[in-house]
Design brief:
With 91 residues, the protein is mainly alpha-helical. Helices cover 16% and strands 0% of the residues. The chain has 1 helix and no strands. The chain is extended.
Amino acid sequence: MGLPAQSSAAIIQLIQSHVTQVENTVRWRWSPGDVAVWDNRATQHRVVHDFGDQPRRLHRVTIAGDIPVGVDGRTSTVLSGDAGSYSPLAA
């Protein structure tokens, strides 16, 4: 079931080349007190390490609601509890 690895990689590369085009991205210019929120079900996040020695704080939150469903009809895996138990956290 599914595509061969080479075909899958080619499709992922095609999608990645589209979503990373400048016209499909947002670059936030931070100011004190700013908060950014996005839905990982429909968005990619990529940090650009251009903030020098300025602190960067990230809080990952999952909102209760419908369980996302992939294009193949399978529902996502539901995780519960402290994200530190299944997501690596930077010190």
